[in-house]
């Protein structure tokens, strides 16, 4: 069929060089019947009749069988259909029957290799993605995105120094993995200072070693106390310890406090690059609202989500810092959690540390820094909020379009203090209690039957009371000769019986 | 100590200078085969005289159907408006280099908005009869220094169906005039030597309104929205787009890298700005506004149309900006696109980011320097000065006024 189509096109070109003026729709009249034309007409009529009987286009089937080409899975249509006129916008529908085949309607006077008319639809034999090419495409996308970031993203991105206080507990793995993965996605240089209460432990070390980031892991001698108040105080001390490390190692960049139970968005890291000296972002507080009445939840600011309280900078009309949104603890008075395992709401402080970022140069001993920054060596614990680090709170820069964008979320969820978890969350040695599954895929291998399997099958028993019992007893007797098992599976009993027959 | 200080300062200065130099080439200059001409100013290089035709050729047609102002053939109307108030316009025909006839030949629309070309040849004939009888300039050269804007599917062949258009050929009386058309295909009857190919009209304000921040990462590899099978006119495929669009669908519908479908999303423009490659396959005609949209949104156009002639081909180096894929290579499209080295892709994106490139594809109102109107005038200016041979001796006639189908000769 491919061959005939080519022949048709060749014929078409030859005849058209004589500028034969007959347009396509005049083909039905005036064409004298050559034997080939008569033959095609008869064949076409026959295939139309068969199609009417069968209900589908019979000619397609014939050509599918005849077609041997591997590239063209959508077969070329018969020459009669090729000569079909398609009147695009006219009212008369295209007439599928009864057009005497005409030379291919290619009237280009010049030598164009582009042929007008019906072409085959080229489909390759395996039209599915090639995994190597998919990887190449992803690398191209990565490269384009890196270039975009270089051109339109932050100019001169600074290193990000993340300070995280942590300690070993059940939920540490949960929280720290989340923070770790967020940090692994950050497109800028990163240093992660992990301060661990209770000293450096292998648990934490093995967890964070998987990140591939540059980590400074230090231990803090005190252990994490059990009440939230004490805990917050200790965390503050641990953060100051982290800041002292920044000072000692003279790290240059932007310091951000990433508590291990917080959730950070990627836009946060882009936004804090805009901080000059001391910036503040809005933190969404996901306090456990299970115990709060609806009346208590009040709206804070017009643009904020009325349900989720937000801590952060508040701006006036001219986008200058005017005050602070803090967390209102009054509705929770007396109902908040005191100890770690309380089921009441865990409240944040007035202003959480994680909502503030500072330029590491503020922490250096010398170098030019603004005079409103207190020296961290002079402070010692008992800092309520990061604003105590500065003498004048009005120098803080509001970030995230003046605090309107919430870029991270605060949450404290902890298990009971005495909850057990396997060290490093590896189950080794394998657990001792094994429960077999109800059905094994291999009917001939006998499963082990512990005693509690009977109640499960007890549901079946009332229905098939007589037969099961008799069969059980029979199979018990018979199978005792073969194996020492009591099987109540009807399938297997049947199988056993056939074996013995 | 002091020597070290000065040495350090010198090195720091050199370092800063080199960084600044590296930062700058985010876009690249565009020079085509005609040179660095996208920013040329045509004012002063040519003079255009606009014939005053009765409003039945232009204004009345537009009044009957104002949809003509926003469809992809609207370039003819905007070109007229631009020339009326442009500094290249002259009211003295004696000093004009080019003559423009404002006929809105594509403004006869069906209820669904598609232009019917059946009356256009008669309209053009009657207009030319008018200008040749009222002014002597047509007969002087038989139209060789006249230009017409024919943004039709197949240009001045005045038909939407390719076989019929090829049969008719370019309207005989327009054979000597310069045609400014959107259709371009090499070795095709409907493209004359010396025609100027222009981009189709795409609404500039709409596209500007839907721009997204430039740092939004481009995460779609290949993007296309449009028909693959024209079920009304060609249900089996193979006719529409010479089977190329159907081949794209059949080969890549399961490929996650290809975001292709027939949907009409409201975020079409935004999606294009998040894509690296945008397919621009042929349809019933090889050109489409997708090329303009791809250029404006910085998406590399993948042109699947054999022998196509792209807009302003002598001023814009399309080979370096877009990717050309032969129709027979469509099954290997994914191999072709993934094997382009990333540096080449980045270079293409830099060329596309050049603002003069985007401006050259648009028809803004009012006109801005470097836009498509100016590129058309630049193209016309590059054809000057006219050769002496176009001026006919008195009484000499070259064109055959009665050639063409009988239906065209009826008066309009």
From TrEMBL, chain A:
Keywords: Cell wall biogenesis/degradation, Glycoprotein, Glycosyltransferase, Golgi apparatus, Membrane, Signal-anchor, Transferase, Transmembrane, Transmembrane helix. The chain crosses the membrane at residues 37-56. It is an enzyme of class 2 (transferase). Residues 459-501 are annotated as: Disordered. Its EC number is 2.4.-.-. The gene is LOC107932565. GO terms for cellular component: Golgi membrane. This is Glycosyltransferases. The lineage of its organism: Eukaryota, Viridiplantae, Streptophyta, Embryophyta, Tracheophyta. Pfam families: Glyco_transf_43. InterPro entries: Glyco_trans_43, Nucleotide-diphossugar_trans. Belongs to the glycosyltransferase 43 family. Gene3D superfamilies: Spore Coat Polysaccharide Biosynthesis Protein SpsA, Chain A. The keyword Glycoprotein applies. One of its GO terms (biological process) is plant-type secondary cell wall biogenesis.
TrEMBL record, chain B:
The keyword Signal applies. Its main location: Golgi. One of its GO terms (molecular function) is glycosyltransferase activity. It is found in: Golgi apparatus membrane. It comes from the Eukaryota. One of its GO terms (cellular component) is Golgi membrane. GO terms for biological process: glucuronoxylan biosynthetic process; plant-type secondary cell wall biogenesis. Residues 45-340 form the Exostosin GT47 domain. Keywords: Glycosyltransferase, Golgi apparatus, Signal, Signal-anchor, Transferase, Transmembrane. It is a single-pass type II membrane protein. It holds the Pfam family Exostosin_GT47. Residues 1-21 form the signal peptide. Belongs to the glycosyltransferase 47 family. This is Exostosin GT47 domain-containing protein. It comes from Gossypium tomentosum (Hawaiian cotton).
